[in-house]
């Protein structure tokens, strides 16, 4: 058996599978979701610091910015993606990114308001 004959099942499987991996349809909303999740963590920490009187203004502003970026990128991707759920175009990821970004924006906004009151 030569190497070309041995690789035929592998080539057939790869041809049937099509594109393997993560494409832009899934990468963009995933990246937006990660940015939104980072914003949630920053907002949570800034809110905890604002309650304790230690400030946290930079973290709260960063949380608001990260949240807004996640909402905008998720919204643009959702508006431009074709197909429905389960097609691999990232519609569900874009919706999750928008929700997580909204939570980050709210947490960051609350931290900004509380940091202004305390100091």
Summarize the structure in words.
This protein has 119 residues and is mostly helical. It has one domain (22-118). 79% of the residues lie in helices and 0% in strands. It has five helices and no strands. The protein has helices at 3-6, 8-17, 24-51, 57-80, 91-118. Helix 4 packs antiparallel against helix 5 (91-118). It is elongated. The mean pLDDT is 78.
Estimate percent helicity.
over 70%
| Helix and strand pattern | HHHHH
Radius of gyration: 21 Å
pLDDT < 50 stretches? none
What's the rounded overall pLDDT mean?
A: 78
* Helical/strand content category: mainly alpha
**Amino-to-carboxy terminus distance:** 78 Å
Basic shape: elongated
Provide a quick synopsis of the model:
The chain is mainly α and 119 residues long.
Structural key phrases:
79% helix, mainly alpha, 119 residues, elongated
List the helices and strands and how they pair.
Elements: H1 3-6, H2 8-17, H3 24-51, H4 57-80, H5 91-118
